[in-house]
Write a structure and sequence with these properties.
Number of strands: 0
Bound molecules: fe (ii) ion
CATH superfamily: Hypothetical protein af1432
Strand content: under 5%
Shape: globular
Structural class: mainly alpha
Order of helices and strands: HHHHHHHHHHH
Radius of gyration: 16 Å
Distance between the termini: 36 Å
Number of helices: 11
């Protein structure tokens, strides 16, 4: 790819430094680094990856009540919004981050915005950009959980296999903890195990 112009990177970095905790800022840089490695391993263009990764958690500095306020003020009509607000408002940060990317940084590319907004629950029919951003986020160097090493290994070899492992792990974790499962996570899962079902 053409590298992102330095002035754009600088502008985003300075925004993130102001709006994110140090840990979240470092996580963002780690996600970006991992995504670049994945792009190179899978021989895909880094086009779009840089900006999607840098902005994927742009709204993560907001507390849950601020995320809810943001979504309502911006009139973002999201599927299952009431359920998200009631059960797991932190999911909103991915949609808010996409909105910040659009409004603050003028990102108009639909693929970049989708990769940002689907980095928490996934989405049906994820493309390579979506998968790389999703996997880079959950395998960033600051992540610590039992499956993370295996996920890193698989992500660098087979994005779909790594996605199935990651979604399975996330869904099982939610069910084990008797939490509300966002239907979008089920749709993402289904699209990886029965990808052509809609074409039948
Ligand atoms: Fe996130
Ligand atoms: Fe993240």
């Amino acid at each position: 790819m053409k590298n992102m112009p330095k002035k754009d990177v600088d502008k985003i970095i300075s925004y993130l430094k102001q709006h994110l905790s140090k840990a979240r800022f470092n996580h963002t840089l780690g996600t970006w680094r991992v995504a670049r490695q994945l792009a190179s391993k899978h021989k895909v263009s880094r086009d779009k990856i840089d900006i999607a990764c840098l902005l994927h958690d742009a709204g993560k500095g907001l507390k849950n009540r601020q995320l809810i306020k943001y979504v309502k003020k911006a009139k973002m009509y999201l599927p299952y919004l009431k359920e998200i607000i009631k059960n797991n408002p932190s999911i909103l940060h991915s949609f808010v981050s996409a909105d910040i990317a659009r409004k603050k940084f003028g990102v108009r590319d639909k693929e970049i915005l989708k990769a940002i907004s689907s980095h928490t629950i996934g989405s049906p029919c994820m493309n390579t950009l979506d998968k790389i951003v999703y996997l880079a986020d959950i395998t960033a160097p600051d992540r610590r959980y039992p499956l993370v090493k295996r996920l890193r290994w698989h992500a660098s070899r087979d994005l779909d296999k790594a996605m199935r492992m990651a979604l399975k792990n996330k869904i099982q974790h939610v069910i084990k903890n008797k939490k509300w499962l966002h239907p979008g996570a089920v749709e993402s899962w289904n699209s990886f195990v029965a990808p052509n079902v809609s074409k039948l």
